[in-house]
Amino acid sequence: MAKAAANYVENGDVIFIDSGTITLEMITFLKNKHVTIITNSLDIIVQALPFENSNVISTDGVLERDTKSFSTYNKQNSFGKYNFDKVFIASTDVSILNGVTNSSPIESGIKETIVKGNAEVFLLVDHTRFEKYAMFTYCGLKEIDYLITDDFLNESYQD
Question: Where residue 75 falls among pLDDT bands split at 50, 70, 90?
Answer without folding.
Answer: low
